Amino acid sequence: CRMEADDQALFRHPEFGIKIGREFLKEPTEFELMGWSFEASDFRGTSYVAEMASPEELLKGGYVGYHGIGGGAAMLGMDALNKVGLKVADYADTSGNPTASKVYRAVKLIMSQPGIEAYFLSGFMMANQEQWHHAHGIVKALREELPKRPGFPVVLLLCGNKEKESQEILKKGLADLDARVEIYDRERVYDAKFIGGRVKTLVEEYRKDQAAA
Fold first, then answer.
1. Residue 88 phi/psi, 5° resolution?
2. Considering only CA atoms, which of 208, 191, 142 is closest in space to residue 134?
3. Of the chain's two ends, which shows fewer C-beta atoms within 10 Å, N or C?
4. pLDDT bracket for residue 24 (50, 70, 90)
């Protein structure tokens, strides 16, 4: 016979030996297992995380910590980076109205990757979820991570429901940090070329600082 188990019911069936309730064509990495733990412990919204390059590969340079909102929008952001010669270290998607704590954990995991040269929130969509949950989670995570890496590039594109409040949370919450932070709203939601170019420019500036240090 053929049967199917719901992703969220896998904890009831340890006998299946399934480590992650997703379709994977390979054995999950520690990074991916950590990402799944966020999903397995909190069913509110989605937090999908996949490793796109090994830690050894990341250290060669040119990789960005990548955080998408919604699958299609995330693909648009990845294309924008590829066109300017940058690569994604990971694929992350937090959508479906996740909690701030879930977003926070995803950002912390993304930022834990060695050698990444930027963090990019790719919100190329007018999301109907309340975006202030993303804003709160992102601010908390970046306030913990950015002081460890002065001048680090951060490009945030966030728009949709509760956009005005979310933008205010991001701008006030990150204003005093020593980092290259740029925050964009709906005016740039379809301008992938511009956003990709800004990530590239900030990465190049950061590299110069690192070389001079």
1. -90, 130
2. 142
3. N
4. low
Q: Does residue 144 register a pLDDT over 90?
A: yes
Asked if the model's pLDDT at residue 98 lies above 80, the reply is yes
For 73, the token pair is 């929008």
Locate 74 and state its tokens. 């995330």
Answer yes or no: are the C-beta atoms of 108 and 34 closer than 8 Å: no
pTM of the model: 0.91
Domains and CATH numbers, the chain: 76-213 (3.40.50.261)
Buried b (16+ CB within 10 A) or exposed e, 36-50: bebbbeeeebbbbbb
